[in-house]
Amino acid sequence: MVGRHRLFVRRRDGRVEVRLNEMGRAVAREAFGHVVAAERDPEHEWHPGLNPPIDPSNDQDDPLATLNRQNEIATNAELAVMTLNEEFLNDAEAWAWLSTLQLALRSTAIANGLLSDEKLASCDEELLQFVHTLQQYLFELAECF
Amino acid sequence: MGAVKPMRRTTTDTDVLTEEAVETQRPWNVVVWNDPVTPMSVVVVIFKKIFGYSNNKATHLMMTVHHEGRAIVWSGLRERAESYCVKLQVAGLQSTIEQEQ
User: Fold this and answer.
1) Interstrand relation of B28-33 and A16-18 (parallel, antiparallel or unpaired)
2) pLDDT (tens digit, 9 = 90+) per residue, A5-57?
3) Is B49 domain-assigned?
4) How many domains is chain B partitioned into structurally?
5) Mapping DSSP to helix (H, G, I), strand (E, B) and coil, where does residue A17 land?
6) What pTM did the predictor assign?
7) pLDDT at B8 over 90
8) How high is the ipTM of this complex?
9) Which run of H or of E encompasses B64?
10) Sign of the alpha-carbon torsion through A109, B43, A77, B94
11) CA distances (Å), B84 to each of A76, A116, B57, in order?
12) Residues in A touching B96 (Cβ below 8 Å)
């Protein structure tokens, strides 16, 4: 799935080249799809990860701020889904990928209680592989910014 | 001679207004919290993108989050703090706001 070559490369014309193969894109598709679904569905296990408190000293956050967050997350995630099969991404699309992959990573961690190094080290192999794959995508995509 | 009992001054509207003004003027902090899964370089990229910070400043703040568990990444008016907090959350970082003590 993840070869030795770089997965994302910033080209001279400013675009980000996506060098993921089909399996690699399938992982991204799964991550992006879950973020889109979780934003719409309060019952989705990733939903709490997408809706943390803004001001914990208040019982309820400003509805306008939470609506803005919801809209921006949905916009990024939908743009990421729409560009899943693209070979090249512009800046806005690359940022949408980075934001959505990072949301997927953090939501996975929250949903599975991976909130310490010890918990992360002791989680099951399939989950750990998913987390490591997302981390590698993020690490390499961050190099393009 | 008996001790003079200090008079308790009644709170006036002016006092209330002054306290409200002080309360309003205290800046709001945007706090980013550590988590065990986010790659360090991603945090740096997000700080640079959202706040326009230099690489050095963004890296310093990321290291503060990493070592101390949290860092104040911006301070100022509540509305802007809330807006920055939302942008950080949209980018997948754990962020909250709090008023300076």
Assistant:
1) unpaired
2) 899 999 999 999 999 999 999 999 999 999 999 999 999 999 999 999 999 99
3) yes
4) 1
5) strand
6) 0.87
7) no
8) 0.92
9) helix B55-68
10) positive
11) 17, 26, 17
12) 52-56
Please report residues of B whose CB lies closer than 8 A to that of A109: 35-37
CA of A91, closest CA in chain B: separation in Å?
Answer: 11
Which pair of tokens denotes residue A129?
């592989």
| Token digits of residue B30 | 């945007």
Helix (H) / strand (E) containing B70 = strand B70-76
A-chain residues near B50 (CB < 8 A)? none
Give the chain B residue nearest A136 (alpha carbons).
B39
- A65, A100, A135: residue with CB nearest B39: A135
* Rounded distance between C-alpha atoms, residue A111 and residue A130, angstroms: 13
Per the structure, the complete domain to which residue B72 belongs is given by: 43-101
Q: Which of A10, A39, A54 to mutate to test the interface with B (most CBs of B within 10 A)?
A: A54
